Amino acid sequence: MFSMKKFTALILTLLITVPVFSTNAGAVSTSAVSSCLIEAQTGEVLFAENADEKRAMASTTKIMTAILTIEAGDLDREFTVDEYAIMVEGTSMGLQKGDIVSRRDLLYGILLPSGNDAANAAAVSVSGSISAFVKLMNEKAEKLELKNTHFVTPSGLDADGHYTTARDLASLTAYAMKNDLFREIVSCKSKQLEFGNPPYKRTLYNSNKMLTKYEGAIGVKTGFTDNARRCLVSAAERNGATLIAVTLSDSDDWNDHIKMLDYGFSQVKAYPLETGCSARVFVAGTGKSVGVSGGSATLALTADDRTKLERKVFLPKMVYGSVRKGDILGSVEFYLNGKNVKSVPLFAKESVEVEKEELNFFQKLLSFFGIYA
C-alpha cells in the first residue's frame, strides 16, 4: 500500500530534482552584481541578471563622454587644455599644464588609457565647463531613453547621484558603436600620438584586455573605482552578429565576458532578409514607371525572434522629375516587437528622363485640379 509517508518523500524528491526555470535558464553564471548581453542591432536582450539595478559605473561613463565629443565635431582643431580640468585624480593620458591637443587626441586618451584628465579636458572644450557638459550628458541620456541613468562627472569618478544600469549601458554602447570613429578608436590596442608643449610622440595603450583575449572582440571600455568595483563593457563580432556585454561590480569580468559572448553567439544567427519588391513607381508626366530593388542584407536573430520579424515596404506611388538608375526611391523596414531594427533602401532599377516641358505641363495639370506636387 502506498503510504502518505512515501507520497511525501516522492513530492520532496521531485521538488529537489526538477529544475526551477528562469529567463536565463541554461545560459551562463557570472560573478557580476549586474549584467546584460544584447544583440547590437536589434537591441534584443539575450542574457540579464539585475539588469535594471542602479549602480555606479566608473569609467564606462566615458562612453558617453567620448560620443558627445565626437558629435561636437571640430576634432582636429588644436587648443591648450584647461589647467584646472586636468587636475584630477586617477588614470591619466599624461596631460600637463599648457599642453596643446586636439579633441581627436583626447578621444584616444579617454577611451584607451581611460584618462580622467582627457575626459575633463574634452568636457570643457565642448561645453565651456564640466557642469555644462554634465548637463549635456543627461540631456543625451534622456534623448536615448536611458531612464535609469544619471551623470555627475565626465570621468566616472565616484559621486553621489552618478549611476546607470547594465541594460542602459548596453543600449548606450549600441548607439555609440554605430559611429565609425568611436568603433575605430575602441578597437585600437594602442595608438601613437603627438601632443604637448612642445609636442612630442608618445604611445597610449588600451586597458581593455578583451581585444587580445577574445576572437572577434572590437571594444569597448573598462572601469574601476572603490565604489563601483570592476566594470566592463565589451563588444564582439562573429558570423554577421554583433554582441554587447556589460557587467557591473564583477570580480571575474574577463572570464565572465568570454562566457557571456560565447553563449550569445550560440543563440543568434545572421539570417538573410527579403528585400525584393515587385512594385513599380510612376514617373510623373512620362507615362512610364520604374522598378525597384533592395540590396542583400542580413539580421542577427534568435530562432524565436526570426518568427516575429515584420516587414513593411515604404514606396511612393509616383515621383516627380527624372529618375536615375540607383536613386533611392523608398525602403524596406523590418520590425521586431514593434521596434524598427533594420532599414534597407530600395533603388531604381532603370533611368527615366523627364523633359522640362513635360514636367511643367503635368504640374500645371495638377494645379488645375487643386493638387500641388
TL;DR of this structure?
With 373 residues, the protein is α+β, with helices and mostly antiparallel strands. 31% of the residues lie in helices and 28% in strands.
List the helices and strands and how they pair.
Elements: H1 4-17, E1 34-39, E2 45-49, H2 62-72, E3 78-80, E4 100-102, H3 103-111, H4 116-127, H5 130-143, H6 166-176, H7 180-186, E5 190-196, E6 199-205, H8 210-213, E7 217-225, E8 229-238, E9 241-248, H9 253-267, E10 269-272, E11 280-283, E12 288-294, E13 298-301, H10 303-308, E14 310-314, E15 318-319, E16 328-336, E17 339-348, H11 356-368
Parallel strand pairs: 11-15
Antiparallel strand pairs: 1-2, 1-9, 3-4, 5-6, 7-8, 8-9, 10-13, 11-12, 12-17, 14-16, 16-17
Helix pairs in contact: 2-3, 2-4, 3-4, 4-5
Would you mind describing this structure in some detail?
With 373 residues, the protein is an alpha+beta fold. It has two domains: 34-267, Beta-lactamase, CATH 3.40.710.10; 280-368, Peptidoglycan synthesis regulatory factor (PBP3), Domain 2. The chain has helices at residues 4-17, 62-72, 103-111, 116-127, 130-143, 166-176, 180-186, 210-213, 253-267, 303-308, 356-368; strands spanning 34-39, 45-49, 78-80, 100-102, 190-196, 199-205, 217-225, 229-238, 241-248, 269-272, 280-283, 288-294, 298-301, 310-314, 318-319, 328-336, 339-348. The strands form five sheets. The chain has a six-stranded mixed sheet, with no helix packed on it. The protein has a five-stranded antiparallel sheet with strand order 2-1-9-8-7, with helices on both faces. It has a two-stranded antiparallel sheet with strand order 3-4. Helix 2 runs antiparallel to helix 3 (103-111), helix 3 runs antiparallel to helix 4 (116-127) and helix 4 crosses helix 5. The longest helix has 15 residues, at 253-267. The radius of gyration is 27 Å and the shape is globular. Mean pLDDT is 90; it is low at 1-23 and 364-368.
